[in-house]
């Protein structure tokens, strides 16, 4: 599995924590986040990362900003992206099983590093259930393609 990881200035610290986790898990990843001291604009990081998941260069993407909200809104504008804003382990599992989410968004100002690590491990390790959920995901793709 190849993962793209990115953040704006609001997510730098949590992004570094998640980069460490991906290294520990031996997961191949590219980090395109900012090392900025000043303020940047989250769409400038979230949208290019989402495009690289949508075009198949990466299997999954992890997006971090202050709240995770701006990143998830931005990524979900890219056709083919199902970005889930997640701050609990239950939702991390459910969004993989039910939504086949291909991007995960989290907020550094919302949760701590320990929970974020658990969320990422759960999200990366859970398979899509398909079945009745496939039909629902197909309806999202159909809307994008109409
Ligand atoms: C930056 O201050 C902050 O607005 C951004 O990181 C994010 O939380 C936006 O949704």
TrEMBL record:
State the active site.
Answer: 65 (proton acceptor), 98 (proton donor)
Its keywords, alphabetically, are:
Isomerase
Q: Which GO terms describe its molecular function?
A: intramolecular oxidoreductase activity, interconverting aldoses and ketoses
- Family designation: Belongs to the LacAB/RpiB family.
A Pfam family of this chain: LacAB_rpiB
Q: Which positions does UniProt annotate for D-ribulose 5-phosphate binding?
A: 8-9, 66-70, 99, 109, 132, 136
Domain of life of the native organism = Bacteria
InterPro entries, A to Z? RpiB (IPR004785), RpiB_LacA_LacB (IPR003500), RpiB_LacA_LacB_sf (IPR036569), SPI_LacAB/RpiB (IPR051812)
Annotated GO biological process: carbohydrate metabolic process
Protein name as catalogued: Ribose 5-phosphate isomerase
């Amino acid at each position: 599995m190849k993962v793209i990881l990115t953040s704006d200035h609001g997510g730098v610290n949590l992004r570094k924590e998640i980069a460490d986790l991906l290294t520990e898990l031996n997961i191949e990843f590219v980090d395109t986040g900012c090392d900025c001291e000043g303020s940047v604009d989250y769409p400038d990081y979230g949208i290019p990362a989402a495009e690289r998941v949508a075009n198949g260069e990466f299997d999954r993407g992890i997006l971090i900003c202050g709240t995770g909200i701006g990143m998830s809104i931005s990524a979900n504008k890219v056709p083919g992206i199902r970005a889930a804003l997640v701050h609990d382990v239950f939702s991390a599992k459910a969004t993989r099983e039910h939504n086949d989410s291909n991007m995960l968004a989290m907020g550094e100002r919302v949760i701590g590093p320990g929970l974020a690590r658990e969320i990422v491990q759960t999200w990366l390790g859970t398979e899509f259930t398909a079945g009745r959920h496939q039909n629902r995901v197909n309806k999202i793709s159909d809307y994008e393609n109409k």
